[in-house]
Amino acid sequence: MKLIRDLVVLGSGIVSALYLLNVGFGIVEFIPDNTPIFGNLDEAAATALLINCLAYFGVDLGHFFKRKEEPGKPEPKTHDIDVSK
């Protein structure tokens, strides 16, 4: 089962990378880029899929987007909200 899941994730990553490289020269597009507001949603979805496929195989790109910590400044807490009420 793991082999099948790995192959599906690998195939999804390859398809999304090829879609982003635009090997179809703009002929094959799910949503045309000149469509107002929605034109670049397919590229955003392909990018998200590619990043998730890379993270599945251990290539984590998230550390490129983290802020650098300032000395003496504590990390922000993300668990301060009490949702049990």
Short note summarizing the structure:
The chain crosses the membrane at residues 7-32, 44-65. The protein is mainly alpha-helical and 85 residues long.
How would you characterize the overall build of this protein?
This protein has helices spanning 2-21, 41-56. The protein has 2 helices and no strands. The protein has one domain. The protein is an all-alpha fold.
How many helices? 2
Strand elements, count: 0
Alpha carbon gap, first and last residue: 41 Å
- What is the number of independent domains? 1
Q: Summarize the helix and strand pattern as letters.
A: HH
User: Unreliable stretches, pLDDT < 50, 5 or more residues?
Assistant: none
Oligomerization: single chain
Let me know the largest β-sheet: none
Rg computed from alpha carbons, rounded to a whole number of angstroms:
19 Å
Query: Shape, please?
Result: extended
**What is the percent of helical residues?**
40-55%
- Mean model confidence by pLDDT: 80
The proportion of strand residues reads under 5%
Q: By helix and strand content, what is the structural category?
A: mainly alpha
Which labels suit this protein?
mainly alpha, 85 residues, 42% helix
List the helices and strands and how they pair.
Layout: H1 2-21, H2 41-56
